[in-house]
């Protein structure tokens, strides 16, 4: 059985760790891709030391040269797109079409970040003094940790590793243990693109050992984390105590608002794709629909009719629309939330059980599930479920819709469906999310656009887009005096 290796100092090395877990296909757990060896803290420490040693020469490599390596990784990923999508689908459970979408996004991320090498520029600022000027330069930080989840196991590592490298940092990457094979392929692609030894390192292991070592090791200057709230907040607390620069992108509970003048068919189609695509395992998934009473019954009827047509199946079946949940933990948790919804008095109008049928015996399949007549006091409204479960909240008007949409701790994405331009812009103004959509699903994002949430969802600089390098670099200010004489007085 293949065992996944760490990548340290330019070589793939097998961990000496004694704990091993199988890497199973979530559509069929009898299909085992390989074995994950959980690395030790000491192995992570060594990787950090090697990354620290590689920093000076990498920092001295001109930014455009670093950018070319990252762009080349994008080209290599494009050449391997089909194989990578098939692997992603088998390992994580996305449908082939969804996996193809994630790989396309990852290629865009690599190409965009490669091109951002030219943005390692600063400002020239006039001084208040004669014959003086001031300029700024952007400099790398040192060793950066990238700690990532399983749900976008190629795109999220790509959108952290690429800007970190372009900015001149060296990286220690800790992928989720559920997706080691796609992580390994991504690292191989960087190697093929020409990344020098020690500049990019990968250590596979648990959050408690490898993740914690990355956060606590003094040689690590910054950590970019994407994952759940409890882990992100703990990591931020620990890191900030030692002055670590931390960026956390965490959970969501994204609302889609439907007003009385909305195109209901469009709103239904967008809700269904946002709620049930990737089996609801997206931070940007639509998990709440806030609909005004006037059209609520008609909307719910259409929504349920559409959701019932969705085919649940194995990720490698081209007919599948809703694939499996990633593992038993996630499957049990989602079924537990469905029970909670029933106990809380929500009205189940679609699904509500595990999905069964030929070929589904050994996977983690759950029916697309819809609860109607839910309220903001319910746990199924307040907590991230991360599965194919959607809750409908009925409201009397636009003002109540905004109040209800904002009634959760999270703030990642949102949507509104209306043709009323005034309400669109009032919504944009008032909605408490980092991203919002008008007449389109809550999901999606583009490489050249900043991405991230507010409130409990996000801590630190936005990832991607024009802000992609901000987290990974420091601004240094340089005062230049070319008078050639001693300054006679100080301004401040
Ligand atoms: P998770 O928090 O369980 O794990 C994320 C990563 O953190 C993993 O690599 C894990 O091993 C590591 N980790 C765990 N404990 C740690 C510790 N004590 N110290 C350091 N690292 C530790 O999250 P998950 O289940 O892998 O991912 C799903 C979550 O990710 C959901 O909440 C989802 O909303 C969120 N997510 C957010 C975004 C976003 O951009 N906002 C994108 C994708 C996923």
Give a verbal description of the structure:
- The structure is a single chain.
- The chain is 38% helix and 21% strand.
- The radius of gyration is 24 Å and the shape is globular.
- The protein folds into 2 domains: 6-250 and 457-477, Aldehyde Dehydrogenase, Chain A, domain 1; 254-438, Aldehyde Dehydrogenase, Chain A, domain 2 (3-Layer(aba) Sandwich).
- Strand 1 (6-8) and strand 2 form a beta hairpin.
- By secondary structure, it is an alpha/beta fold.
- The chain is built from 14 helices and 20 strands.
- The chain starts with 5 loop residues before the first strand and ends in an 11-residue tail after the last strand.
- The strands form 5 sheets. A 7-stranded mixed sheet has the order 14-15-16-13-12-17-18, with helices on both faces.
- It has helices at residues 41-60, 63-79, 81-92, 96-115, 155-166, 180-193, 207-216, 229-241, 264-276, 293-308, 328-343, 379-382, 398-405, 421-430, and strands at 6-8, 11-13, 20-25, 28-37, 124-126, 132-140, 143-147, 170-174, 200-202, 220-226, 245-249, 254-258, 286-292, 347-350, 369-372, 389-395, 415-417, 437-438, 458-459, 473-481.
- The structure holds nicotinamide-adenine-dinucleotide.
């Amino acid at each position: 059985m293949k065992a996944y290796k760490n990548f340290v100092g330019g070589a793939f090395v097998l961990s000496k760790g004694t704990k091993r877990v199988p890497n199973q296909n979530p559509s069929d757990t009898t299909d085992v891709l390989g074995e994950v060896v959980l690395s030790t803290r000491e192995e992570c420490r060594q990787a950090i030391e090697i990354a620290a040693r590689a920093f000076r020469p990498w920092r001295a490599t001109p930014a455009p040269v670093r950018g070319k390596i990252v762009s080349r990784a994008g080209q290599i990923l494009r050449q391997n797109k089909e194989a990578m999508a098939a692997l992603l689908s088998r390992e994580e459970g996305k449908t082939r079409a969804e996996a193809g979408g994630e790989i396309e996004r990852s290629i865009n991320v690599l190409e965009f970040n490669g091109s951002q090498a030219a943005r390692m520029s600063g400002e020239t600022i006039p001084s208040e003094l004669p014959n003086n000027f001031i300029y700024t330069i952007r400099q790398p930080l040192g060793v950066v940790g990238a700690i990532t989840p399983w749900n976008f196991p190629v795109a999220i590592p790509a959108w952290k590793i690429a800007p970190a490298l372009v900015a001149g940092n060296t990286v220690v990457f800790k992928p989720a243990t559920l997706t080691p094979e796609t992580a390994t392929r991504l690292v191989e692609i960087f190697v093929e693109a020409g990344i020098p030894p020690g500049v990019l390192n990968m250590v596979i292991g648990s959050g408690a050992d490898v993740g914690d070592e990355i956060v606590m090791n003094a040689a690590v200057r910054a950590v970019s984390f994407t994952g759940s709230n409890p882990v992100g907040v703990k990591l931020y607390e620990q890191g900030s105590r030692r002055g670590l620069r931390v960026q956390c992108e965490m959970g969501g509970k994204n609302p889609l608002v439907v007003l009385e003048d909305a195109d209901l068919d469009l709103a239904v189609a967008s809700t269904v794709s946002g709620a049930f695509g990737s089996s609801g395992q997206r931070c940007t998934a639509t998990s709440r629909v806030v609909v005004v009473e006037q059209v609520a019954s008609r909307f719910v009827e259409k929504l349920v009719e559409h959701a019932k047509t969705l085919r649940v199946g194995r990720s490698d079946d081209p007919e599948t629309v809703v694939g499996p949940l990633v593992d038993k933990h996630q499957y049990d948790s989602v079924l537990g939330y469905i029970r909670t919804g029933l106990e809380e008095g929500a009205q189940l109008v679609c699904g509500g059980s595990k999905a069964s049928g030929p070929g589904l015996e050994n996977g983690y399949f759950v029916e697309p599930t819809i609860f109607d007549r839910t309220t903001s006091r319910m746990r199924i409204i307040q907590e991230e479920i991360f599965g194919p479960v959607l809750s409908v909240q009925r409201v009397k008007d636009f003002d109540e819709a905004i109040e209800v949409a904002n009634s959760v701790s999270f703030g990642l994405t949102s949507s509104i469906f209306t043709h009323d331009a005034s309400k669109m812009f009032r919504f944009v103004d008032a909605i408490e999310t980092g991203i919002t959509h008008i007449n389109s699903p809550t999901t999606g994002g583009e490489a050249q656009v900043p991405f991230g949430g507010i409130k409990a969802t996000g801590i630190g600089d936005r990832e991607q887009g024009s802000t992609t390098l901000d987290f990974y670099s420091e601004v240094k200010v340089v005062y230049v005096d070319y008078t050639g004489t001693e300054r006679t007085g100080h301004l401040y």
